[in-house]
Amino acid sequence: MDCSISHSSSQPIYEQIVSQIKSQIIAGKLKEGEALPSIRVLARELRISVITTKRAYDELEAQGLLRSVAGKGTFVAAANLSLLREEQLRQIEELLQKAVDEAKVHGISLEEMARLLTFIYRGES
């Protein structure tokens, strides 16, 4: 499992972990039944508190993405990937709506926004 954190991000560390694990499950990089590192191992690898790692795992378990088995570890749960994908799209739609609202305030046209989005998406910035 790939997981990295940014201490300079405004996003809390546990949310960074939740987001990355969720994305890996949706992308199929983490498969149903696959074991995740223990809370202590992940905390040590990321050089963060065990409490922070536990909070991330607890959040993912509450969302139905992980399941804990006493004495065995934490595993990727069977997830409804279409619901997860819908949630991601909804979040992106909210962010894009904010960008569109701001563009309208500043008189930026739809064509300019489309070019800018294409430019950013392709990593040309």
Question: Can you lay out the helices and strands and say which pair or pack?
Answer:
Elements: H1 13-26, H2 39-46, H3 50-62, E1 66-69, E2 73-76, H4 81-105, H5 110-121
Antiparallel strand pairs: 1-2
Uncertain runs are none
Oligomer classification = single chain
Strand order within the widest sheet?
Answer: 1-2
Helix and strand composition category: mainly alpha
**Termini gap:** 29 Å
Mean pLDDT over all positions: 91
Q: Work out the strand percent.
A: 5-15%
- Note the total helix count: 5
H and E string: HHHEEHH
Largest sheet: 2 strands, antiparallel
What's the Cα radius of gyration? 18 Å
Helix content: 55-70%
Quantity of strands, as a count:
2
Shape annotation: elongated
Can you characterise this structure?
There is one protein chain. With 125 residues, this protein is mostly helical. Helices cover 58% and strands 6% of the residues. It contains five helices and two strands. It has helices spanning 13-26, 39-46, 50-62, 81-105, 110-121, and strands spanning 66-69, 73-76. Strands 1-2 form a two-stranded antiparallel ribbon. Strand 1 (66-69) and strand 2 form a beta hairpin. The longest helix is centred in the last third of the chain and has 25 residues, at 81-105. The protein is elongated. The chain starts with 12 loop residues before the first helix and ends with a helix. The model has no long low-confidence stretch (mean pLDDT 91).
